[in-house]
Amino acid sequence: MTDATFKPTVYLKTGCPFCLKVRLFLLETGQLDQVVLREFVPGDDEVTAIRALLAPVVEKVTFPTAELTPGRFTTESDAIVAYFAKLAGVDPDALPTYRSYLDGVHKGMQSLFRENLQLKKQAEAA
Ligand SMILES: N[C@@H](CCC(=O)N[C@@H](CS)C(=O)NCC(=O)O)C(=O)O
Predict the structure, then answer these.
(1) What CATH number was assigned to the domain covering residues 9-91?
(2) What is the pLDDT confidence band of residue 3, given thresholds at 50, 70 and 90?
């Protein structure tokens, strides 16, 4: 595949809040058609193929991961968003739906995640 025909691929895990963040950003900036989305549901057949593909090229397989240019893989949602924000010339902070998700549901999920971790540690120590 030449650079002219290359389309970035974004690998997403269904239910992952960081993956929804990237998807929402692409949707709100009208860039969904600029990427190939490969999304899997944990436990389905696609997950094995995606993990096998990513394992040799990233330090640790996490989602989202994007191949932004041929052979260049990025595993941080902020870096993926920053890449597409620059391409589109938009400021992510100025996007109402994206910001609303980050400041609301996403923030809430992260805080629940931390709380759950702490409770697990306490339960293990008891
Ligand atoms: N720092 C990462 C965090 C991503 C992350 O924690 N993703 C989780 C899913 S929500 C993950 O990939 N966990 C390992 C796995 O599912 O194999 C980002 O912002 O992109």
Answers:
(1) 3.40.30.10
(2) confident
